[in-house]
Every structure is written in C-alpha cells, then in structure tokens.
Design brief:
This protein is α/β, with parallel strands linked by helices and 344 residues long. The chain has ten helices and twelve strands. The protein has helices at residues 3-15, 22-25, 36-41, 110-118, 138-148, 162-165, 175-185, 202-212, 232-244, 268-279; strands at residues 64-66, 69-73, 76-80, 124-128, 155-159, 187-192, 217-223, 248-253, 290-295, 298-306, 309-317, 326-330. The chain has a twelve-stranded mixed sheet with strand order 1-2-3-4-5-6-7-8-9-10-11-12. β9 and β10 form a beta hairpin.
Length: 344
C-alpha cells in the first residue's frame, strides 16, 4: 500500500481494529487489488458507511446469563473465552469484543463453569471468542479439561480460525497432544473457519493431519462474503478442497448486519443462486451443508424461493417450540436479513 492509501484507512482502523500476521499476509497476491485474502483481512473505506450500525444484530448480549457465557438454546452454552483473534476478519460479527469497555468477555470463567455444572440440560458447550486457540496456550486446554470433567456434557466444540490464520501452532507446540488427551475423555469438535480455498495451504494440510491423529473431527463454517466467495465456482472449490482433507462443510451463513459489514454482504436471493449453481456439480455426500442466518430469535435455515415468496425454517430456535417451524414471507430480491422480508 502507498502512504496515501494507508492514511485513508487510519479512520477505519480507529473504529474497527486491524490485526494479522506475516503468514496470513503472505497468502495475498499483491498484484490483485481484489484478492480474496486481501478482502478478508485488509481494511477498506467502505466499512465506514452507516447502512449497518448495530454491533450486536443477533442480540447475543441479551442471552448472557453470566459474564462470558451465553445460553440461547436449552442444550447448548456458548463461552466467550477471550477477545482477541489471530487476525480480525473485516466482516466479523463480534466486533464489539474488540472495542474498549466491552464486558462480554471476562478473564475469570469460574462463574461460567459453575453455571454449566448446575444446568444439567446443557449437553454441549461451544468455546469461542475471539479465538481460544490463538496461542495454543495451556490456559485454553486447562479450561477444556474442566469442561471435560462435567459429566452431563456430551461433547465440546471449539470455534477457531487458527488453521487458516496460523496453522503452525498445531505443528510447533504440544497443543495437539493436550487436545488428544482431552478428546479421550470428552469428544472435541473443531469448528474451523475457512472462507476461501486459497487459505488451504500445504502447511494447513500438515496441521490437519496432525489434528486428525488426535481423533478430533473438523467442521467448517463461513459466511458468503462479497469479493471473497460470492461465486458458484469458489463455493464449489471451497467445498471440494475441504472434503479432500476430511474437513466437513457445516454451515454457510448469511452475513450478519453488523456495523461495518454492509459492503461484504450479499443479497439472500443471490446467495441462493450461487449455492444452487455450485451444488449442481457436487455429489450428494457433499450437500449436507445448511445455509442459515443467526437471527436473534434462532438459527434460521434459508430454504428457497418460489414465485414471489421465500421459505425459511427454524433450524434452532431460542423458543424451542418453534424449532422445525417452516414459515413463508414475501420475497425481496435485495433482502439481506429476515426483517427485509415482509410477513404474509
């Protein structure tokens, strides 16, 4: 970047933090101004538009039962382990965690652990943040051990983009050995976050092999992002690249309308067209992926369009009586979130 370009982006960085590392930046094709990795990690002026202003559009804070712990779905708890990542995706939906005076993340998670122990309806915990594996430190595995010892938990999920941001942490430390020991007591599922096939490097493949030796299963979830993976060809290549290294594609998300994210969002009608086109070329075993939005009322699966209508289904609902409910709204070709579609 020129000095002038950097100067223009200072205002963006003052509002939405920038963070990356030399490994991830090395994946950028510097001669391509629309390189997908560049679009994932490098700020751009469009982030300052005010079409989206909410820092918590899914209402996560309203489901906080104790600091650091969300309990939205009866059988699932979500722990915000920290407020830092290996890099800050420009389209992050939890930007609020990286802003000063945020109190959703706490250093002492003993209160969260006590809550999980007391609430036996909780069958699984998602440890996320931030990125709990950013350093591969003993602190995170100590916490996972404490969860593993809670009898009523069936499994633990760990949300992390470190396989993309810095796969070396799985090779150069004893992190995988510690995870392997925990996995013998309580099954761990690693929820990876690959947005584009260019993030899957030879180092990544070695790290995945190392994780597979632990018995931990790896799943992937990603939003559909303008300028990154908003084409059928890229979606097809991402799915096949992941499956080739035994990572199961799990969710495609609709971009949350978080402040700063509008320029990265794609209209739902366009995403459906992209996914339908990509899926035409894929065998059935590759098509278990759900296209959903993480709405404040629950995880809503976006089924499809017919005539002038669009079909949704509650994949998971905060009100569990609504789980599985199918509902129809008037289609809006430019709609990007549930509220953009009129009730019928």
């Amino acid at each position: 970047m020129s000095k002038e370009e950097k100067e223009k982006l200072k205002e963006v960085e003052e509002r939405f933090k920038f963070r990356s590392n030399s490994y991830y930046l090395s994946l950028i094709n510097r001669s391509d101004l629309n390189d997908p990795i560049r679009n994932i990690i490098i700020p751009k002026a469009e982030e300052l538009n005010e079409l989206y202003t909410d820092l918590d559009p899914s209402g996560e804070h309203s489901y906080m039962v104790v600091n650091g712990l969300e309990h939205k779905y009866e059988d699932t708890a979500l722990v915000l382990f920290n407020n830092v990542c290996g890099g800050y995706c420009r389209f992050c939906f939890r930007k609020r965690l990286f802003i000063d005076d945020n109190d959703d993340v706490v250093n002492d998670l003993s209160e969260a652990l006590n809550y999980i122990k007391k609430h036996k309806e909780i069958k699984n915990v998602l440890v996320t943040g931030g990125d709990p594996l950013i350093t591969g430190s003993k602190k995170v595995t100590d916490f996972l051990w404490q969860l593993a010892e809670i009898e009523h938990l069936q499994f633990i999920r760990v949300g992390s983009k470190m396989l993309a941001f810095n796969p070396y942490i799985f090779l150069d430390t004893d992190l995988t050995e510690r995870l392997k020991d925990i996995n013998k007591v309580k099954k761990i599922k690693l929820m990876a976050h690959f947005n584009h096939p260019n993030e899957i490097t030879e180092v990544t493949k070695k790290a995945v092999e190392k994780i597979k030796e632990t018995g931990i299963m790896i799943y992937n979830q990603t939003p559909i992002i303008k300028g990154v993976n908003d084409s059928a060809k890229t979606v097809y290549n991402l799915i096949t690249s992941l499956m080739s290294i035994d990572i199961t594609p799990y969710y495609f998300f609709q971009m949350r309308p978080t402040a700063g994210n509008y320029s990265y969002s794609v209209a739902i009608n366009d995403v459906l067209n992209i996914l339908n086109e990509a899926f035409k070329e894929l065998p059935g075993v590759y098509k278990n992926i759900k296209y959903t939005m993480s709405h404040k009322t629950g995880k809503i699966e976006i089924i499809g369009i017919y005539d002038d209508k669009i079909v949704f289904k509650y994949h998971r609902a905060a009100d569990k009586e609504k789980t599985g409910e199918v509902f129809i709204r008037k289609n809006n070709p430019n709609g990007r979130w549930l509220e953009d579609f009129e009730e019928i």
